[in-house]
Amino acid sequence: DEAPPQPGALEAPLAGSGAVFDALEAAADAYDVPIRLLVAAAYSETRLAHVDSEKEGRGLFQLDPLAIDRAARLLDVPAEQVATDLDTHALAFAALVADNVGSPRPDADDLPQWLDAVAGVRTADVAAVALSEGTRIALREGLDVELADGRVSLAPAPLGTLTQAARPDSNLARWVASPNYTNGSRRRGAVDTVVIHVTQGAYGGAISWFQNRNSQVSAHYVIRSSDGQITQMVEEEDVAWHARSWNGRSIGIEHEGFVAEARWFTDAMYRQSAALTREICNRWGIPKNRQHIKGHNELSGNDHTDPGRHWNWDRYMQLVNGGGGGNPAPAGGRILGFVREGDIMNEAGAIANARVRIEGGPEVRTAANGLYTFEGVGSGHKVILVTADGYAAGRKEVDHVAGQDTWGSVALQRGQATGNVLGFVRERDLMNADAPIAGARVAVEGGPTVQSGADGLYRLEGLPVGDVRITISKDGWQSQTIERTVAAGADSWGSVGLQPAGAEQPEPEQPEPEQPEPEQPEPEQPEPEQPEPPARTTGAVVGTVRAAADGQPIDGAIVSVTGVASVTTEADGVFRIAGLAPGPVEVSALAAGYATLTRTLNIEAGVDTTFDATLAPRAEVPAQPANPGPNDPPRTGVDPGPKPGGDYETVPPPDPVDEAPTMEKSSGSGGCTQAPGAP
Q: 552-557: long-range contacts at Cβ-Cβ below 8 A with a sequence spacing of 24 or more?
């Protein structure tokens, strides 16, 4: 399947600087492992970013719990240090590779043996193959990554190509079965939506997570960033567990990457994903439009943000409808321009690394000469937004025609650093995406005022850095005031759910003051009687999220009332979710690195119900058999991971009437599984 690699694959020209590169270089020297191998593996997993996945991978190399424990023993350091400390993490991966490859070390041109050693870091077979292939692709294609404090460049090396295994539904995909699905036997007409997700982690980690029965999540397809490789994990006629109430009517496609980083959304990924979506739509009779091809964030009853603002919907839909798929095709055209200080003709005033964004679309950075370029942009009126540290924000509006180049240079003036606040205005609940409020007045105290659009979205741009108070109001609705912190060059979210205006409050009666007798002192005026406020008809959940180890509050924990709303804690760990209808609700608290805690609470009208959540460190998930059996413990309904990015919701526990196991189908799509009562 694979052409022999040419000598020198691990000796290609390499240059680098910054903390990540320094850590990799030190690890390579310490364990006599090729530095290019470590760079390529780290690029494959995280694009050289030391971050945690929302599934189970941690750090620069997305190490799973077993790999972390094994490395901790090799280095004789605490497991948490392996996961969190960059230098230790790099040493850990190099130590694992060195331990796998043994002594004496292979020659630098013995790429297969080195790749086998890299694959051995992973516990699950599929994740091992994905890591090995991803490393190989990075070596073959080369890389050039700008980091926060440096840059890493690796020249490409000529290598062969890999073939893909057969799969059941699409010739574009290979097949790796997930046990997490409902046997649906759906037919044409039962599916009307394709859902676009982002993994918030690495390709191999997502595949491994969906194979884990305890995760209780899955998708039909997962797509790799580097080359667009597609893995199918659930047959299309069956129901994958990826979008709560939308599971039964949809097909879910996961895309490797992180919502906040546009660099993951490569040309290869867009083309392969678009070709797959086009196939699915043709197979199921789904219209190829944005009403039926949706982002996870656009589904009602969910609290996710993926695929996020960097996903280029214009380009994606053009590829879905215009053909091309995995083959080269004419781009939709470019929008490009220079960002310069003071005047767009000031060539000496180029502003490098400025953030340039198409409103509602992708974001890029300017090069050293101030040039930015958006590729494959569809036709229409576009708003170009530009920010840079030390400059006031700028904007440019252009009318773009697909297939042509449109120039949109922007001059920035030196001034106060600014940021933006944006959000949705919706009826009753900020998560109620089906009920936007258009034309709401959004006013910054002492600042600008805007109105929400037809989709309920408002955007306040160019706000000075610091704390702001924003009041959202509209006739017929109760106004709401929120406080947000504006960060330089960044977007802060401030979505709200407005409540309908209640009955008009009666004007307080003003008693007639007594008339004083002549020459008598004036009597005191009595205070007007205030009407009793109406009784609260809803309740609230309040509390604090803390770490079990030290009792400290957890910043950034997510507390969710299932199917209703969610909030994120700040530094004090305190939260409040109000406006809850009386009755039982399921409340979950979760945070990166901690096990999820879920409780069922009874909400009473006018009462604040306390839910103080103490979270234990996330435990290692024990190995599970590939397919569930009749004697396995039942699945839980606990949400497995954080919600703000591309993670998935779990399927609720089975209803008693649906607890009979579903037998394996002849196609071998995941074996015998216990069908949930609700997808």
A: 554/591, 554/594, 554/615, 556/591, 556/592, 557/589, 557/590, 557/591, 557/594, 557/613, 557/615
Q: Measured between alpha carbons, how far is residue 358 from residues 308, 335, 383, 624, 643 in Å?
A: 13, 9, 6, 45, 25
Cα separation, 480 vs 478, in Å, equals: 7
Q: Are strands 193-198 and 293-295 parallel, antiparallel or unpaired?
A: parallel
326 within 8 A of 172, measured Cβ to Cβ: yes
Cβ count near 350 (within 10 Å): 17
Average pLDDT over residues 226-234: 88
What pLDDT, on the 0 to 100 scale, is given for residue 489? Answer: 62
Place of tokens 């909030």: 567
Could you give the CA distance from residue 464 to residue 392 in angstroms, rounded to a whole number? 9
Which range in 47-56, 246-255, 499-508, 634-643 is most confidently predicted, on average pLDDT? 246-255
CATH number of 14-154: 1.10.530.10
> The tokens of 31 are what?
């364990």
255: pLDDT strictly greater than 70: yes
Indicate if the pLDDT at residue 239 is higher than 80. Answer: yes
- Looking at residue 464, its pLDDT comes to 82
Taking 60 as the threshold, does the pLDDT of residue 146 lie above it?
A: yes
- Alpha carbons within 13 angstroms on the beta-carbon side of residue 608 total 8
The better pLDDT of the pair 629, 17 is held by 17
Burial letters for 310-333: b for 16+ Cβ neighbours within 10 Å, e otherwise?
Answer: bbbbbbbbbbbebebbbeeeebbb
More confident residue, 487 or 45: 45
For residues 326 and 272, the answer to whether their CB atoms sit within 8 Å is yes
* Helices (runs of H) and strands (runs of E) counted in the chain: 10, 37
Secondary-structure class of domain 539-615 per CATH: mainly beta
Report the predicted TM-score, pTM, of the whole model to 2 decimal places.
0.39
Higher pLDDT, 217 or 600: 217
Cα angle 323, 325, 326 (rounded to 5 degrees) comes to 145
CA 644 → CA 136, 308, 496, 558, 592, distances in Å? Answer: 31, 10, 16, 8, 11
User: If residue 561 lies in a helix (H) or strand (E), which one and from where to where?
Assistant: strand 558-561
Amino acid symbol at 61: F
All CATH 2.60.40.10 domain ranges of the chain, comma separated, are: 418-487
Q: Which of 80, 70, 93 is nearest to 24 (CA)?
A: 93
Question: Could you count the other beta carbons within 10 Å of the beta carbon of residue 404?
Answer: 12
How many alpha carbons fall within 13 Å on the CB side of residue 410? 31
What is 343-375 written as a DSSP string?
A: -TT-GGGB-TT-EEEETTS-EEE--TTSEEEE-
Q: What is the pLDDT of residue 679?
A: 32
Residue 398, token pair as written in the block? 């252009």
Q: Is the pLDDT of residue 26 over 80?
A: yes
Q: Which residue has the higher pLDDT, 677 or 450?
A: 450
Amino acid residing at 401: V
The CATH T-level fold of domain 418-487 is: Immunoglobulin-like (2.60.40)
CA 117 and chain centroid, separation = 31
Three-state DSSP at 65 gives: helix
Whether 17 shows a pLDDT value over 80: the answer reads yes
Q: At residue 589, what is the residue type?
A: A
User: Which tokens is 171 given?
Assistant: 């010739």
Q: How many C-beta atoms lie closer than 10 Å to residue 141's C-beta?
A: 16
The CATH topology of domain 333-412 is Immunoglobulin-like (2.60.40)
The count of residues in the chain is: 679
- Least reliable range by pLDDT among 159-168, 438-447, 511-520, 657-666: 657-666
Determine the Cα–Cα distance for residues 324 and 614; give it in Å rounded to an integer.
51
What stretch(es) of the chain map to CATH 2.60.40.1120? 333-412, 539-615
**Four-way CATH pick for 166-329+620-679: 1.10.1270.20, 3.40.50.720, 3.40.80.10, 3.40.50.2300:** 3.40.80.10
Average pLDDT over the chain reads 76
